[in-house]
């Protein structure tokens, strides 16, 4: 199971539907329960406040899920596992 959130105006908003649009202006947080991973993806053109809030959100989630590893990702430096994740509809 994957949960996806977008940071909008320094607030965490849960993604609706089964896909998330990755956009250079966004900060996204994905919780991947199968791999115990929290991905924090920062678009190149995302605002500073969204990037800071994304970091705070990921830190808070790591307290909720202490066994999960936070993987910060900058746009353009995505690992294969993340690319595979966003290339498929979320489940």
At a glance:
The chain is of the alpha+beta class and 91 residues long. 27% of the residues lie in helices and 32% in strands.
Which keywords apply here?
91 residues; alpha+beta; Severin; 5-stranded mixed β-sheet; 2 helices; 27% helix
Average pLDDT for all residues? 87
CATH-defined superfamily: Severin
The CATH level-2 architecture is identified as 3-Layer(aba) Sandwich
Helix content: 25-40%
Poorly predicted spans: none
- Percent strand: 25-35%
What name does the CATH topology carry?
Answer: Severin
Largest sheet composition: 5 strands, mixed
CA-CA gap between termini: 5 Å
Strand order of the largest sheet: 2-1-3-4-5
Return the string of H and E elements.
EEEEHEH
Number of discrete domains: 1
The number of helices is: 2
Q: Helix- and strand-based class? A: alpha+beta
Shape: globular
CATH secondary-structure class: Alpha Beta
Total E-strand runs: 5
Rg of Cα set: 12 Å
Structure description:
With 91 residues, this protein is of the alpha+beta class. The protein has one domain: 3-Layer(aba) Sandwich (Severin), CATH 3.40.20. Helices cover 27% and strands 32% of the residues. It contains 2 helices and 5 strands, in the order ββββαβα. It has helices at 48-64, 80-87, and strands spanning 2-8, 11-14, 27-32, 37-42, 69-74. Strands 2-1-3-4-5 form a 5-stranded mixed beta sheet, with helices on one face. A hairpin with a 4-residue loop joins strand 3 and strand 4. The radius of gyration is 12 Å and the shape is globular. The N and C termini lie close together (5 Å). The mean pLDDT is 87.
